[in-house]
Structures are given as C-alpha cells and as structure tokens.
Design the sequence.
C-alpha cells in the first residue's frame, strides 16, 4: 500500500532525472528524441550527439541537487511560490516536448504540474512554505533512494547510467555511483543543516532587556 502512496513522488523524481539528461544533451550540442517514463519508476532518455559523460552524470546529480537547492531557496512564501512554479513548469515542459512511455508515467507528468501550480496559486504563508519544502525534501529522499539502488546494482552488470559511463571512461561503475552518492549527500546535507538552522532561528526569539 505504501509503495502506491509513494509512487507519484518516485515518478516525479524520474521525470526530473530524465529532464536533466535532456537538458545536458541540449547544452552539449545533442538532440533529444524522446523521454520514456514507466509505472515501475524506470525512465530513459533517447538522444543523439552531445557530450556523453556529461549527459550520463546529469540525471542523478541534477535531480538530487535540484531538490537540495529548492530546500535552501524556499525561505519565504514568495520564494516557495517561485520554486513551485519552476518545478511545475519544468515537468510540464518536459512532458509536452519529450515524454512518452506508458500511460501512468505520462499522466503523472500532467497531473503533477496541475497540483503544483494549484498549490503555488492558492496557498499562502506557512502553507505554501510547507508544500514547497515537503516536495523538496521528498525529492531529496527519492534521489538518495535511487542512488542507493544504483550503488547496489553497480556490480551486477545491469545497464545503468553508471555502467554506461564506465564503458565510456573505463572507470568502474561502482566508483561513479559512489561518487554521485557522495556529491548528492553532501549537497542535501548542507541543505538540511541550513533549513534546520532556519527553523531554530524562527522559533527562538531573542530576549530584549
């Protein structure tokens, strides 16, 4: 039951992961054919050209560091509104331009922007801050879970981003997966420390003599 409750958040992470592959492809001079997102949480970005190492690294790192950046940036209700609209716009644009795959993956690529834009336009004050921080923290957690799975798969011979980068660079897949995990955990850790400090400061009022 819990798996189905968390599935929309897993698929949001997949949408962002594949979107960052697509953005890296375009940034390095390649072309994106389409993105596939599936109910299992799996995804793939089919592209031509571009700088392959950058494209392969961008998925896990982009998704996790985006979540960390959102956690740190949402300090005010206005910042939360802006970041929610950025998140909703990214998912919607990706879905319109590239996403294919099964009906659940595509449908959630439509449903998430609707929910996110609704929250950004209707919620105010602490409510919108909570919504933005909740989504940001969920994104961080799902990114770490995906990276944990990647590390565990690195020695199995299963085709993953890390394995494909290992084929390109002759550096073992487990090294790439572990490096991405370290970078992501560092970024997320910094974000969590900052938000915890912010919460303490907001709940502690200095005494005035």
Sequence:
């Amino acid at each position: 039951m819990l798996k189905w409750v968390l599935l929309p958040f897993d698929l949001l992470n997949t949408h962002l992961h594949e979107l960052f592959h697509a953005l890296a492809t375009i940034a390095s001079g390649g072309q994106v054919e389409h993105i596939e997102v599936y109910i299992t949480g799996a995804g793939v970005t089919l592209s031509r050209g571009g700088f392959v190492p950058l494209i392969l690294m961008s998925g896990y790192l982009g998704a996790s560091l985006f979540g960390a950046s959102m956690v740190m940036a949402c300090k005010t209700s206005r910042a939360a509104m802006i970041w929610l609209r950025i998140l909703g716009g990214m998912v919607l644009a990706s879905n319109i331009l590239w996403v294919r795959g099964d009906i659940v993956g595509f449908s959630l690529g439509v449903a998430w922007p609707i929910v996110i834009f609704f929250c950004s336009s209707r919620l105010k004050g602490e409510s919108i801050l909570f919504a933005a921080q909740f989504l940001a923290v969920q994104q961080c957690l799902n990114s770490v879970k995906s990276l944990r799975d990647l590390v565990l798969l690195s020695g199995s011979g299963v085709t993953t981003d890390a394995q494909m980068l290992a084929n390109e660079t002759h550096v073992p897949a487990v090294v790439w997966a572990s490096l991405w995990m370290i970078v992501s955990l560092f970024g997320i850790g910094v974000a969590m420390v900052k938000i915890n400090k912010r919460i303490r400061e907001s709940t502690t009022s200095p005494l005035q003599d």
In short: The CA atoms of residues 167 and 173 lie 8 Å apart. Residues 2-195 form one domain. The chain has one domain: 2-195.
